[in-house]
Amino acid sequence: MRVIENITYDELHVGDYATFTKTLTEDELVLFAAASGDVNPVTLDAEYAKKTTYKERIGHGMWAGSLISAALSTVIPGPGTVHLEQNLKFNEAVRLGDTLTVTLTVKEKLAHNRVEMDCSVRNQDNIEIITGTSLIAAPTDKVSLQEPNLPRIEIETT
Fold it and tell me: How crowded is the C-beta side of 42, counted as CA atoms within 13 Å?
């Protein structure tokens, strides 16, 4: 099991950055739809999607946006981070099979352990899918812990 350790507010410096990478699979797409209730047919119905601008199913933009939250809570600053605000611009669609890399960069340290982060999400072709900023409350106490072992989830189609 992987150990995750945070970077405290005092340890963060403007310009510090880190990345987080994940691939959108069919199971991820269906699980996100089930968990969020977002059943937009452009994500779930291939016949419907063929008639859209995209000509194929696309992933949920907020699935890609949620990777920013995952990166904040596991990479930089890591465990104990509280996400306060997020401003995102969705530049391109996420497609099944895309491998997305989130890059988070410390933009500004503010009072009361607040930090503004620049956020960028790019696909495997280096196309910028999302740009934006996040305001967080960075952890003040050092934490190092085992990454939780999540249950295995099987997707059944009906």
Answer: 12
Q: Give the span between the Cα atoms of 85 and 83, in whole angstroms.
A: 6
CA pair distance 61, 33, nearest whole angstrom: 11
Q: Structure tokens of 31?
A: 């699980």
**Residue-level pLDDT at 39:** 94
Among candidate residues 66, 69, 74, 70, the one with its CA nearest the CA of residue 33: 66
Question: What whole-number percentage of the chain has pLDDT above 90?
Answer: 90
Helix (H, G, I), strand (E, B) or coil at 158: coil
pLDDT, tens digit, 9 for 90 and up, residues 77-124: 999 999 999 999 999 999 999 999 999 999 999 999 999 999 999 999
Backbone torsions φ then ψ of 152, nearest 5 degrees: -75, 135
Cβ atoms of residues 118 and 130 within 8 Å: no
Chain centroid, CA 43 distance in Å: 18
pTM for this prediction: 0.92
For residues 141 and 68, what is the distance between their CA atoms, to the nearest angstrom? 22
